[in-house]
Please model this.
Amino acid sequence: MITATVLPWVGGAFAVALLLAFFRLLRGPSLVDRVLALDTLYVNALALLIVLGIALGDPVYFEAALLIAVFGFVGTVAASRYLLRGSVVE
Model:
């Protein structure tokens, strides 16, 4: 089956993307670069969980991916508001 040959390559590509985003998170020249790297990190983790859920056929991974998407969005909005205004809550 084609999914058995493609999914390991896709998972490896997302793992490499996770490592590169983590490297940018650590070495980012500015705080904005680090926020964007964190956003990219959670999107890549989300995609890796979906690929893992497809490979294993387990729906629990899709629910975990949904939770990561919600928390990642809220975290990105909070970090952006902090950078823009200096506080998260007014």
Summary: The mean pLDDT is 90.
